[in-house]
Design brief:
Number of helices: 8
CATH topology of the largest domain: Rossmann fold
Structural class: alpha/beta
Strand order of the largest sheet: 4-3-7-1-2-6-5
CATH class of the largest domain: Alpha Beta
Distance between the termini: 32 Å
Strand content: 25-35%
Number of domains: 2
Order of helices and strands: HEEHEEEEHEEHEHEEHEHEEEHE
Bound molecules: flavin-adenine dinucleotide, FE2/S2 (inorganic) cluster
């Protein structure tokens, strides 16, 4: 085993591939689903892990960008052959991605990061802000026992219930609600402008779900989105003594532990904090350990 400060400690578990885009389609305002064949990564990736993507045809932007697993794509044999990621058009890379046609080559490496823990509870509550819903389709599939992920496939105790609290700026940014509902997820929506669901914060939805908690119900929260929203959800979970994991979206340069561009302050068991690399120690952390 190599030393944890050595890049190979992490990158040896990842593979790098030149892939071709199969599909790149809009699914909501400024939001696209990108599909590419990549059997080696698709076979091993688990929910909450991510891949780094770089445009293969030049050096602008020079650095790759991280994107969460949306879901794996199964081939005719039922085995994973490709990946879906979903991205919001934000800056240079995502603007260029949105213009790419099927057949275009990308450089991809992964699977990276730790992923969500596989211990499920009776009721899994997924909390998403904006594009933070992207790690959840695969997690919901796994929690319901519909799909397995990893090689060998990791085992997860199935849940009784999955709820998604999903907050967005307005209704046109909400992506793939039908997909979650089709899986059997109880979807609750909030928008800043009231164009869909509750007009207000996604944290109001979380408080609502927790207020309905039955005495013997075991709830686990997983959360991804803007940092202030995750901090608020972490505080709500702590007040209710509920386990909460957050998936951080810290900007990253390498994704494999070399550059330390992605550090965040994480507390250990003694309460002392230290900088941890989100790409290799995360992106998923216990919310109670983050020094917000
Ligand atoms: C583990 C992980 C998983 C991610 N998964 C997804 C995903 O599934 N879908 C998705 O759309 N995005 C995801 N992101 C965020 C995504 O990597 C960035 O949005 C992307 O780097 C933007 O690239 P760009 O070149 O288009 O924008 P840039 O030109 O790099 O940035 C444009 C603007 O956005 C700001 N910015 C860039 N990255 C972030 C960030 N992470 N948080 C806040 N502000 C930022 C920049 O400071 C700048 O102001 C993920 C990030 C991480 C760390
Ligand atoms: S992105 Fe380089 S160390 Fe994390």
């Amino acid at each position: 085993m190599t030393h944890p400060l050595s890049a190979s400690h992490y990158s040896d578990h990842a593979s790098q591939a030149k892939v071709r885009i199969v599909e790149n389609v809009p699914i909501a305002k400024q939001t696209y689903r990108l599909r590419f064949d990549c059997q080696e990564i698709a076979t091993r990736i688990v929910p909450g892990q991510f891949v780094m993507i770089r445009l293969a045809d030049g050096d602008d932007p020079l650095l790759a960008r991280p994107f969460a697993l949306y879901d794996t794509v199964l081939g005719v044999s039922g085995k994973p052959v490709g990946l879906d990621i979903v991205y919001l058009v934000l800056g240079k890379m995502t603007t260029r991605l949105a213009g790419l046609l099927p057949g275009t080559e990308l450089d991809v490496w992964g699977p990276l990061g730790n992923g969500f823990s596989s211990q499920e509870s009776g009721h899994l509550v997924m909390v998403a802000g904006g594009i933070g819903q992207t790690p959840f389709p695969a997690l919901a599939q796994e929690a319901f026992g519909r799909r397995s992920y990893g090689d060998p496939p990791r085992s997860v105790a199935a849940v009784q219930r999955v709820t998604l609290c999903y907050g967005a700026r307005s209704s046109d940014y909400l992506a793939d609600i039908d997909r979650f509902e089709h899986l059997g997820v109880d979807v609750r929506v909030s928008t800043d402008d009231g164009t869909a669901g509750h007009k207000g914060l996604v944290t109001d939805l979380v408080k609502g779900v927790l207020s309905e908690k039955k005495a013997d119900e075991q709830i686990r929260i997983v959360c991804c989105g803007p940092e202030p929203m995750m901090e608020s959800v972490a505080a709500i979970a702590a007040q209710s003594d509920i386990s909460c994991q957050v998936s951080l979206e810290t900007p990253m340069a390498c994704g494999i532990g070399i550059c330390f561009s992605c550090v965040t302050r994480v507390r250990d068991a003694t309460g002392e904090w230290d900088y941890k690399r989100t790409c290799v120690d995360g992106p998923v952390f216990e919310a109670s350990q983050i020094e917000w």
